[in-house]
Amino acid sequence: MERTEHLATGLDGTRIAWSEAGSGAPPVVLTDGIGCAGFIWRHLQLELARSHRVVHWNYRGHGRSEPPRDPERVTVGDCVDDLLAVLEAAGVERAILAGHSMGVQVCLEAHRREPRRVAGLLLVCGSYGHPIDTFHDSPTLKIALPFARAAVERWPGLARLAFRMLVPTEIALQYALAFEVDRRFVPREDVERYLADLAAIDPLVFVRMLTAASGHDAYDHLSRVDVPTLVVAGEKDTFTPMWLSVRMHRAIPGSELLVLPGGTHVGPLEHPELVGLGVQKFLRDHFGEGEPGDVAPSRRAAVRGTR
C-alpha cells in the first residue's frame, strides 16, 4: 500500500501528522485511541484502501504529531479541532469517521459539532463517554487517576523517565499478553509496537488527555446521530466492556452491531478478517459497491442490525 505523509496545523499552531492511501469515495478517516499511533488499524487500513481513500492522523503529542504548543489543549474538543484541521488540509468535505477506543468519543463529538462533514460512523471497541468509570468494570482507575496526575504534574521529569523505562519492558509485554489481549491471535510485535508508541508520549500529555476524556460524555447525542453507523464490540473487552457498545448501538437510531467473539480491546488485530468483512458489508449496504477487487459478497461478515 502506497502511503503519503502530510502535516496539518491545529488552532494553537501545533503540527498534526496525517497520512493517506487508496482512492474512492466517501473517504474514511481513522482516529486512534489515546496512547496509540495507528497500530490498531494495521489490517483494516489495507482492506479499506482497496476501495476508498483512507486518511489516518495522530493526536497531538502522539506519533509524528508535535506536542501541544498549548499544553492545556488536550480535551476531546481539542482533538475534534485537530480532526477538522486534518479534513481541511486533506481537502475532505465529508467522510466516514472511524474511531477506536477514545477515538469513538472524538468521532461522536465531531458529528455533534459538524454533522454535515460526517457521512457515516465506525465506532470500534470504545465508549461514548467517561471511559475510566467502566475500565475493567471497576472504579479503581477512576480513584487512582487524580493521584497519578498529581504525581506526574509535580515530578514531570521523573515521570518521563519512568514512562520510558517501565512501559516498553518484557514485564509490561507479558502482562498485556496474559490479561489484556488474546495472545493466540495478537502477534508479540503488535503489542511491542503499542508499548513503544505509548512510551514515546509525554506522560503529562497522556494524563491530561486521559483526565479530559474521563470527563467527556456524548451519550446525550447518540439519539441525534443521523448517519449510517456500525458499532464493533469485543466480547471480552476489559478496557471498554461490551455492554457499552450494546448500549450505544441501542441508542443510535438504525445502527448496526458487530460482535467479535472472544475479542478484546484490540479486536481489529485479533479478528482482522471478520472486521474487514463486516466493515466492507456495511460500506456496500450504505454507500454502494466498492471498486473491483473487494471481498466477494458470499464472504461477508454477519452484522446485526436488530435491537
CATH superfamily: Alpha/Beta hydrolase fold, catalytic domain
Helix and strand succession? Answer: EEEHEHEHEHHHHHEHEHH
Structure class: alpha/beta
CATH topology: Rossmann fold
Major β-sheet annotation: 8 strands, mixed
How much beta, percentage-wise? 5-15%
**What is the count of structural domains?**
1
* CATH top level label: Alpha Beta
Distance between the termini: 38 Å
Q: Over the alpha carbons, how many angstroms does the gyration radius reach?
A: 18 Å
The CATH architecture classification is 3-Layer(aba) Sandwich
Q: What is the helix content?
A: 40-55%
Mean pLDDT: 90
User: Helical region count?
Assistant: 11
Q: For the largest sheet, list the strands in their spatial order.
A: 1-2-4-3-5-6-7-8
- How many beta-strand elements? 8
Poorly predicted tracts of residues:
290-307
Strand-helix topology:
Blueprint lengths: L2 E7 L5 E7 L6 E4 L10 H7 L5 E4 L18 H15 L4 E6 L1 H12 L4 E7 L15 H15 L1 H11 L3 H11 L7 H12 L3 H12 L14 E6 L7 H10 L4 E5 L6 H4 L1 H16 L20
Parallel strand pairs: 3-4, 3-5, 5-6, 6-7, 7-8
Antiparallel strand pairs: 1-2, 2-4
Helix pairs in contact: 1-11, 2-3, 4-5, 4-8, 6-7
Sum up the structure in keywords.
single chain, 307 residues, alpha/beta, Rossmann fold, eight-stranded mixed β-sheet, 11 helices, disordered C terminus
Can you give me a brief rundown of this structure?
The chain has 307 residues and is of the alpha/beta class. It contains eleven helices and eight strands.
Task: Please explain how this structure is put together.
The protein has 307 residues and is of the alpha/beta class. It has helices spanning 42-48, 76-90, 102-113, 140-154, 156-166, 170-180, 188-199, 203-214, 242-251, 267-270, 272-287, and strands at 3-9, 15-21, 28-31, 54-57, 95-100, 118-124, 229-234, 256-260. The protein contains 11 helices and 8 strands. β1 and β2 form a beta hairpin. The termini are far apart. Mean pLDDT is 90; it is low at 290-307.
